[in-house]
Design brief:
A hairpin with an 8-residue loop joins strand 7 and strand 8. Helix content is 2%, strand content 46%. A 5-stranded mixed beta sheet has the order 5-11-10-7-8. A 5-stranded mixed beta sheet has the order 13-19-18-15-16, with no helix packed on it. By secondary structure, the protein is an all-beta fold. The protein is built from 1 helix and 19 strands. The radius of gyration is 25 Å and the shape is globular. It has 3 domains: 47 residues, no CATH class; 96 residues, Immunoglobulin-like (Sandwich); 97 residues, Sandwich (Immunoglobulin-like), CATH 2.60.40.10.
Length: 264
């Protein structure tokens, strides 16, 4: 038995109110064979938010607009989480609605696909902030799409930050042979009281003489984990630096010490 689907109608209705699109596809399904039912109509509806110019808009979801938070290190969320052909998402956070001195956070499409971003630094307590987001086709700001709506929130006015984590393994300056079957080095630290999770920052340092971990010419990992260890994927003949930050309900600790290791 063969099923043949014929596209009989393609309706595109632009709803100006709300800047959304209803894409309706009507198809007739024809079944070949004796005793089969007569053709029937099938309809699929796909709803996508759109901006003027045909580009998908970006909707903020958290923190809610006007919220008073219990933290100074909020987690931001948005939707949709992916858009075909887009390589980056940009978050802007500022203390004024004009974003004259905005913090700009650039996320790759892969990072943005998780649908949230956890602040990796504390904001000022008891202060009102504004935030917005936009898709960006390439790394160039010239390819940035229109921004979302602007939302605001107020950070917590007081609280207790967690202690900085104490690193336990590996020791600073240790050398390793590249594990042939599983090229990972486990880094570990002691648990911190009241910590909800930890930010592990591990940076490959091709020029190992420099202690800074913000260089962009090597592999870099920034990973939130709830465990007290993390497996860093490594490469032969590479130098690494790493540190850990704890987060509790109020905010982020100071960074731990930075340790280094070498992989032959």
């Amino acid at each position: 038995m063969e099923r043949i689907t014929l596209l009989s109608e393609h309706r595109l209705t632009r709803l100006v109110l709300g800047l959304s699109i209803l894409l309706g596809l009507s198809a007739s399904a024809v079944y070949a064979g004796p005793g089969m039912p007569a053709p029937r109509a099938q309809t699929e509806a796909i709803y996508l938010p759109f901006l003027e110019g045909g580009k998908p808009s970006l909707t903020l979801s958290s923190p809610p607009d006007g919220a008073i938070l219990s933290t100074i290190a909020p987690r931001f969320a948005w939707s949709p989480t992916t858009v075909p052909g887009v390589e980056y998402l940009v978050l802007q956070i500022a203390s004024d609605p004009g974003f004259t001195q905005a913090r700009e956070i650039l996320r790759t499409a892969e990072q943005a696909a998780v649908g949230w971003y956890q602040m990796a630094e504390n904001l000022a307590p008891g202060m009102r902030y504004y935030w917005r987001a936009a898709w960006q086709t390439t790394v160039s700001a010239a390819t940035r799409w229109p921004y979302s709506a602007t939302w605001s929130f107020t950070t917590a006015s007081e609280g207790t930050l967690p202690q900085a984590p104490t690193l336990t393994s590996p020791l600073d300056g240790v050398g390793f042979e590249l594990p042939p079957a599983r090229p990972y080095i486990a880094v570990q630290w002691a648990p911190v009281a009241d910590a909800l999770e930890y930010l592990v920052v591990a940076q490959e340092q091709p020029n190992a003489a420099g202690p800074a971990l913000n260089q962009v010419d090597g592999q870099r990992y920034e990973v939130w984990v709830q465990d007290i260890k993390y497996d860093v994927r490594v490469f032969a003949d590479s130098d690494w630096g790493w540190y850990v930050i704890a987060r509790n309900a109020y905010g982020l600790s100071a960074p731990s010490e930075t340790r280094h290791f070498h992989v032959d």
